[in-house]
Structure formats: C-alpha cells, structure tokens
Specification:
Length: 563
C-alpha cells in the first residue's frame, strides 16, 4: 500500500479498522434491515413532523409501486430534482427497491444545464419540485411521466394552514416553497396515497448495479455524469461510519443541511444515517435560524457540512446564546476548512471538527483527519480504510513522487466509480493502470495528505465546483466586455470567491458587477455567478495565446481592492 499507508496507520484513532466490509446487496436492504431493527425510531424530523423507519419503508415501497406503474423497472433511470424533504428520501429508496437509478439534479440549476444532463442519462420519468417542473418538460413531450412534489405537503398541519393565511408573510413563504403544476405533470403527493406496497417478488438490484448518477465537471471542467453503484455508495458509507466509530446506533441526530443531490449529502444523509438508525433533521434550504430552532427542539449530535455552514452556525449560536455542545462529531468537506473557522467551531462546541476530502467519482470520501487531538486543520487527512492512495508525477503517473514533494493524487478503493456515463474517452483519461486520477495535487506529510495545488483550474466556492471556461463563455457575450478570465480569490468563509478579471471593450466604460451577474444568471447556477470584478488592461497569455489564469490571479491579489 505504499509509504502513505504505513505512516497513516500510525495516526488512526485506535477504534478505526484498516479494512471495512464491502456490501454485496442493494441499498434498499439497508433501509429494510434498519426498519426491522428499529421500527419505531424516528427517521426524519421535518419542521417538527416526524416519520419512523417503518413508516419510511412503507412509503418507499408504495413509491416503488407508483413508479413501477409509470413504467420504471430495474435498470431504468429516473430524474430527481428536489430540495431536501421527506419525499426526496422516500423516492430515493423507492428507486433502490425497484433496482432503478436515481439521477440527482440540482433543482435550482438552469434549464440549459438540466437538458444537457437529461440528454446524457436518457431518463423517461422524473420526480421534481413544483418550482422547477418546466425544466423537465422534454420528458413529458417524449411520452414520459413527470411527477411534481409539494415540499410543504409533509410539514405539520398548523404550518400548512399558516401558508394559506391572507398575510403578506404567509404569501412570501408559500412563494418560496410552492409552484404551479403544469397540465402535463402529475402530483406525486396525491398519486402515492392511492398506492399499495410493491409485491415482494419484484426483482431487486445487485450490488454492482448503478444506484445513482451525479453530475459533475469531473477533473477537467467538462460536464460529465458519474454513475455510482450500490456497492460504491454503501462501502463509502461504511468507511465514514467506521471512521466516526463512536456514533451509537439509534441514538444520534443528524443535521441534514447539505443537499441530497450533493455527493456528501447523499452518502452521509441518504445512506450513513440509515445504517446507524439515526434521526435526520431535514430542511429544504440552509437557514441558520431554522436550523438552530430545530436543534433546540431535537438536539443535534452529528453535523456534516461545508465551512461556511460551520462559520454561520457557530456565530449565530453565540449571538443567540444557543448551546450546540451536543454536536460531538463534525466533519467539513467540499472545500478547504480554514483554521479560523475550525477554531471558532471547536471553541463554541467544545468538540473536534475534522476535514474530509473526496470527489463525486469516489462516492465521495477518500480521506479525513482523525477525530482525535492528532487532527490537522488544513490537511486533507489520512487515507480511509480500504482506500489505497499514491502521489505521482502528473506528467508521468508511473513515477511516484518522494515524501514531501507535490504529486497528483491517485486512488483505488471500493468507493471509486468505474467510469463516466457514456464517455469512453473521458473514462480512459481518468484512469491510469486501474488507479483513478483525481486531478488534485498534494504532498504526503507524515501520512497526512496536504493539498498543494489543483491540476485543473476549478474554483471551489461554498463546496461547489465552478468551471472558469463555462462562466467566461457567458460573460464574453456582454457588450462591454472585450475579454474576461475567471479565477478564484481566497476567502475564509466560502473558500474562494468567483472573481472576474475584465478587459473592457471601451476604456472609458467598465461593465458593472451587477450587469455581469444578471447576464450570467440566465444560464448559470447562482453559486457560479461572479462576486467580484477587477479591471485589467490586458489578459496575460502564453506564447500559444492561452490565458494564464494563475497569472491573472496573481495580478488580482496584487491589487488593493475590487472595483
């Protein structure tokens, strides 16, 4: 396993094994076994309305029957575009029961992005939030079925009643949650009420069948679809729960604030929470005040999030004098965790926070710091159990680099996917001799991986990947923009700020940040919109004419402040 492994083991918490069990069943059996072991344990708390594991299992089996009636069978793909809500959880496990694939989409993504993703996976059925239903009209036009979900339908009765009041505040909240259902769509919430549980003789998926498709830019910024098997996801869930081995079955409460369509949210909240028989506090959006209110009602013990979440919750808890010391276990992922945020969190809770590292292609976690005094803030961490990691020369991946020298992270393990959806060339480029090439550059420091650089020029803001070329293509259409480069500039809260370096078409007329954001918002998700703008006289380029983004970033950081 190499020197990284041999050194890393010395820093493992004593209760963490070197290898984990690799499951050989469908994820459906994870929910089924938990529901049988803890039938009356609360699985979901949604604004105070609760469902036990036996109720969730029954709903998932009814949902499977509904989807089967819509023509879904084992091996088919179904598009999901939902915020976190009980229906999302239920539909996910309904698909796991059918042996169908859940293609997870960001419900706030623009239509153009959704259509590209639908084109790659070819799903003929979709279950989506009312507010984004129009983005899935092509499925209905091609003869498929689209079900819409009312995310307020499973709120407590008094809260649903309040949304109907003729008050401005009620109308404002309702407008954020509800949307019109098109004539060509059906109501999931109405249809599932009439269903029976699916017959036991309907065949199940096998462990190596595709369970989920996530959408990513992969390692080079070109949009791709990542298929993950039941085994990939369940194995990574085991790796994470064995890493935090002190979590107790049927005794934990998770804050499920990361979106289910995000790789970290999917594995930790859709799967790991179920494996532990934990209760999830579920909210459709990240709202600090609502999260703390729910925590006061049902104290949280485990929280997985991105650094800005930890920063905002710790500060709000201090301001509101809310005790969050029950959160004994905290894992940050998606982007580097700054020392200042880590220290604030640990001072506020009295417990450790650790950093994890991974990619959608690895289900997602590869490594993490130990939940012990040996944790290292700012480090990616130690390779996980059953995970083989090596650092190589990115120009010659047959050559491993010496300890302390930067090298590309290559990984093998049961959580690593086998290739991109319908993209042989991208898959070929992503692997070398059976090892997945992450595209990230790190150093081995005494068994801990420490990020040195990115092989590609992604901007990671609040845990989301932003691909500069995609943003640049949009902003180049602005009439006042002659040329533009997108880079990330450091920020303690969100990791990196999406920053536009602009050469104006007319020297006397610089475009405003607001006009750039307005243009970009028509085709890009909100997290990809530029949040800062700098004026450059010209963009630095190589002799081949390629924009040197690292040089752009250096120039920007040398300026006093954004315009």
């Amino acid at each position: 396993m190499g020197n990284i492994w041999e050194t890393a083991w010395e820093h493992y918490d004593r209760g963490v094994p070197h290898e984990i069990p690799v499951p050989d069943q469908s994820l459906y059996f994870l929910l089924k076994s938990t529901a049988e072991a803890y039938p009356n344990q609360t699985a979901i708390d949604y604004f105070g309305a609760t469902w036990t594991y036996s109720q969730i299992l029954a709903a998932a089996e009814k949902g499977a029957n509904l989807l089967a009636a819509a023509g879904v069978k084992r091996g088919d793909t179904v598009a999901l575009a939902l915020p976190n809500c009980p229906q999302h959880f239920i539909v996910f496990y309904a698909l796991m029961r059918l042996g169908a694939t859940a293609a997870e989409h960001n419900p706030l993504a623009p239509k153009s992005q959704i259509e590209q993703q639908l084109g790659r996976h070819g799903g003929k059925v979709a279950v989506v939030w009312e507010q984004c239903a129009e983005n899935f009209e092509s499925i209905a036009e091609s003869g498929g079925e689209v079900f819409t979900v009312d995310i307020s339908a499973m709120m407590p009765v008094h809260m649903r009643a309040a949304l109907k009041l003729p008050l401005k505040s009620a109308r404002k909240v309702k407008s954020k949650m509800r949307g019109p259902r098109p004539d060509w769509a059906k109501s999931w919430d109405q249809a599932i009420r009439r269903q029976r549980r699916i017959a036991e003789d309907v065949p199940h998926a096998e462990a190596r069948d595709i369970a989920v498709i996530l959408h990513t830019g992969g390692t080079n910024g070109i949009p791709k679809s990542v298929p993950l098997t039941h085994q990939n996801i369940w194995a990574n869930s085991n790796q994470n729960t064995f890493w935090v081995y002190k979590l107790k079955p049927a005794a934990e409460t998770f804050w499920s604030l990361l979106p289910y369509f995000h790789a970290f949210g999917m594995t930790f909240f859709m799967v790991a929470s179920v494996s532990l028989g934990a209760c999830q506090i579920v909210l459709p959006t990240f709202d600090v005040d609502l999260a703390l209110k729910a925590h006061k009602r049902r104290p949280v013990s485990f929280f997985v999030g991105v650094p800005p979440m930890f920063d905002r919750i710790a500060k709000a808890a201090r301001k509101q004098k809310v005790d969050i010391s029950t959160i004994k276990y905290a894992i940050s992922g998606g982007m580097p965790l700054s020392r200042s945020i880590a220290e604030t969190w640990e001072d506020t809770t009295g417990h450790f926070i650790i950093e994890g590292y991974g990619l959608s292609e690895t289900s997602p976690t590869i490594c993490g710091s130990p939940l012990t005094p040996e944790r290292r803030h700012g480090a990616l961490g130690l390779p996980f159990p059953s995970t083989h990691v090596k650092l190589v020369d990115p120009n010659n991946p047959d050559v491993e680099v010496p300890d302390g020298e930067p090298g590309e992270i290559l990984v093998q393990g049961p959580q690593v996917f086998s290739g991109y959806l319908d993209d042989e060339e991208a898959t070929k480029n992503a692997f070398h001799d059976g090892w997945f090439r992450t595209g990230d550059i790190a150093r081995n420091e005494d068994g801990f991986l420490v990020m040195a650089d990115r092989l590609k020029e992604l901007v990671i803001t609040s845990g989301f990947n932003v691909y500069p070329s995609e943003v640049e293509k949009v902003l180049e259409k602005h009439p006042q923009v002659k040329s533009v480069a997108i880079v990330g500039t450091p920020d303690d809260i969100v990791g990196e700020v999406v920053t536009a370096a602009v050469v104006p078409e007319n020297e006397s007329q610089m475009p405003t940040l607001e006009s750039l954001r307005e243009l970009a918002s028509q085709t890009l998700p909100r997290y990809a919109l530029p949040k800062a703008i700098h004026r450059l006289e010209e963009l630095p380029r190589s002799v081949m004419g390629k924009v040197l983004r690292h040089e752009v970033r250096r120039q920007i950081l040398g300026q006093d402040s954004p315009e």
